[in-house]
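lol ok so funny story. i was supposed to be doing the assay writeup but got distracted and ended up predicting the structure for this chain instead. priorities right. anyway since i did it might as well share w the group, maybe its usefull for someone
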Amino acid sequence: MSTTNTTRADLTVDAGATSLLRFATAGSVDDGKSTLVGRLLHDSKSVLADQLEAVEHASRKRGQEAPDLALLTDGLRAEREQGITIDVAYRYFATPRRRFILADTPGHVQYTRNMVTGASTAELAVVLVDARNGVVEQTRRHAAVAALLRVPHVVLAVNKMDLVDYQESVFAAIAEEFTAYAGSLGVPEITAIPISALAGDNVVSPSAHMDWYGGPTVLEHLETVPVVADPSDDPARFPVQYVIRPQTAEHPDYRGYAGQIASGVLRVGDAVTVLPSGRTSTVEGIDALGQSVDVAWAPQSVTLRLADDIDVSRGDLIAPAAAAPSVTQEVEATVCHVADRPLAVGQRVLLKHTTRTVKAIVKEIPSRLTLDDLSQHPAPGELVANDIGRIVVRTAAPLALDAYANSRRTGSFLLIDPSDGTTLTAGMAGTAFTEATADPAPEGATDDEGWDF
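and the output, tada:
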């Protein structure tokens, strides 16, 4: 096999034509999220002729002369009948400068959990505001969710500027209020853009009605916002997905650990620790796409070979010996409850973290967050659908868990109902809105019989 040498300079990917941006849209009901998405798709020539024809036909049946571009994303019958978004609608499109995965999320309060789903992997969130109404309760709610999920870039799209005569003062007041609120939550970057999704102002093409605005259009910002960072800035994390042991005549002693690098860079010769066991070894080889390489980085899928024959199985985490995460059985986290059935103190659950799933029990629910004013409601006893709160979970086996503020991939987890596999809760380890505190101290092993940990 050939060996490929890679330098540090090769690790930084230019945010150019081949880069990918994942982003989500959010906002209150009737703020125009689906219309904005439809306008983006239509004006960027990302709509097939038969799709546009179907939208035009559906619009005529509803008595509309112009095509309702919101129908490009509102695909459920209930959505089209009510004129609202209910489920998360994913759309894929591309321009010559970048590829996009878009999640159009609902605006109703009862579908807040759907925004969590759509924004959980997003690198940018577009929060729409109706220029006539300004910042409302649901706007604050969506800003808080974006801050909780550590979405690095937020765009405030002040929509329906055509209905306020394109007044700069209206836009400036809304932008100032939202920026102050989102900034207080710790959102690192906020870009405000005045638009009219219905008329197309500042969505793909600059508006002729707002010469006072000199910033980018929505699409221009989406195409140029920096989202690709140097992977060597983060400590390496490699959740083991599968152990490869062919035991053939050609490869009688091959033992490889396959998976996707969650963060950072791994090199041949690196000293690593296998967690939760704590055993140490050295990276002897890295196999990628049928070749042996000297270095690999997130999010590549590779197979690692270690110098020592140690016990490694699915669910283990391989990390640099000098920068390994703490191991704990006491998980403190902020969570969003997404299931219709409540989450209660004492409930037995499964906790899925990367490729590892362990039994767990909910020990405490210290508080529930009131997103209107960010106050804490103490000891609610349970969380219901769309609630965001703090919980403490005790696991049957130790986990190598990062703080979510440090790693969205290895700091997140799911709570699952063991009886039917239903996802109950999305969790983010560490502290909400502020810098993460130190990881809990490692706990000794305990008996998981009866799930009373």
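The mean pLDDT is 84. The longest strand covers residues 356-370.
back to the writeup now i swear
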